[in-house]
Write a structure and sequence with these properties.
The protein has 16 helices and eight strands. The protein has about 400 residues and is an alpha/beta fold. The N and C termini lie far apart (about 80 Å).
Length: about 400
């Protein structure tokens, strides 16, 4: 064997030392990269590791851009279902991809147990489940969870803080039954001394704008506390109108009178989030040019422009109220409302969805319903559901 030179021996020694160091580091790294064996208190231990970043949501504009136009339009519909037949909800969602269902009437089968689970599994996106549970003579879960007072009774016997607590409890009961939106509170004002009957009557908190603001605001806040979406209604004010829009044409006081009183609660309450607004079938002299507000572009300009509301806007029932049905077929009423500025059209009359979607899709193709407006409204609907990031 040829003797190694001193320089060579030093090089080999350094190589051997390096190999030992690498081997030791390998063992250490193997131990430290096993997440179950991080020593407590070390920088990489579970209690000290930074939380994993949440997946970034796509923007609602991007999400909508990937949807066919018919799917976008379907998200802008809320349809009444048969509360005695839970499968009716699953069927309409599965067949059409509508964005929301409305549960009215007295039967409660659809709200028992987990009867809505098949419906929730049937659609491509979350489905809004709405009721109108105001208290008093307009309730939906009173047979299941007990009754709550009317708006007038709340304002007469409770503080706003107590109303908020009551609404939060009611909201938790609604959520437990699968309901995500309550078409309440009523923010209509009545005339002083108005009777409890009539279309609004004791459904209103009172005749003073400040009182209505305080109590309706408390009710809406309680619903939000429970994770239920509140809806202020009936814009621009049904309480002092000439009649009942369920039965026929209704006229409100002139716009300048509404601006001084009836619209004040909307102006005061719309900034809280989340909040939606329901537009009523109300002819407003000086604003709607003889049309019901639900199909009047001027009414939506008042709401969006003058009052600055940026949230969701729903129509009142387009299929079961003669203020509309005496003038329009359902497909034409839905088209007129969406073209005027509504985000979501509601009907409870049981009429099928496909003819409405056919009418809307034809309107987009002809340019009567601009595709950019459809996309913007659909993005607001999806943002409210939390499935994408608002623009």
């Amino acid at each position: 064997m040829v003797p190694l030179r001193p320089r060579t021996r030093r090089r080999l020694g350094l190589i051997a030392l390096a190999l030992l160091v690498v081997a030791g580091l390998g063992i250490g790294l193997a131990r430290w990269t096993n997440w179950t064996t991080w020593p407590a208190g070390s920088p990489g231990s579970p209690e000290n590791r930074p939380p994993a970043a949440e997946p970034r949501q796509p923007s609602c504009a991007d999400r909508v851009a990937q949807m066919p136009i018919r799917a976008q339009l379907a998200q802008r519909l809320m349809v009444g279902v048969n509360p005695a037949r839970p499968d009716s909800a699953r069927a309409v969602v599965a067949e059409t991809g509508i964005g929301g269902i409305f549960i009215g009437g007295n039967p409660t089968d659809i709200l028992k147990g987990d009867a809505l689970a098949p419906m929730r599994a049937a659609g491509p996106l979350p489905v809004t489940v709405a009721v109108d549970d105001e208290g008093g003579r307009v309730q939906r879960i009173d047979e299941l969870d007990g009754s709550i007072p009317s708006a007038r009774a709340m304002a007469a016997t409770m503080t706003p803080a107590q109303v908020r607590e009551l609404a939060a409890k009611r909201g938790r009961e609604l959520r437990a039954r699968g309901i995500t939106m309550d078409m309440a509170p009523v923010v209509d004002m009545t005339d002083p001394g108005a009777s409890s009957g009539g279309v609004i009557g004791d459904r209103a908190f009172g005749s003073d704008p400040d009182r209505v603001t305080r109590y309706a605001g408390a009710f809406a806040a309680g619903l939000r506390d429970a994770g239920v979406y509140p809806v202020l209604k009936h814009f621009p004010g049904h309480g002092r109108s000439s009649g009942d829009s369920h039965k026929g044409e209704v006229t409100t006081p002139p716009l300048n009178a509404l601006l001084g009183a009836d619209l004040a609660p909307y102006r005061n309450l719309m900034a809280a989030e989340p909040t939606a607004v329901m537009v009523g079938h109300l002819i407003v002299p000086g604003l709607t040019d003889g049309l019901p507000a639900t199909v009047s572009p001027a009414a939506y300009r008042l709401l969006r422009g003058d009052l600055g509301f940026g949230g969701l806007v729903y129509t009142d029932d387009l299929g079961a109220m003669r203020a509309i049905t005496d003038r329009y077929s359902l497909p034409d009423a839905v088209f007129a409302a969406l073209r005027a500025g509504a985000d979501v059209a509601l009907w409870t009359s049981g009429e099928p969805v496909p003819p409405v979607l056919d009418r809307l899709q034809a309107a987009v193709q002809s340019g009567q319903l601009p595709a950019r407006d459809v996309a913007a409204a659909t993005a607001r609907v999806l943002a409210a559901k939390g499935v994408c990031a608002p623009a």
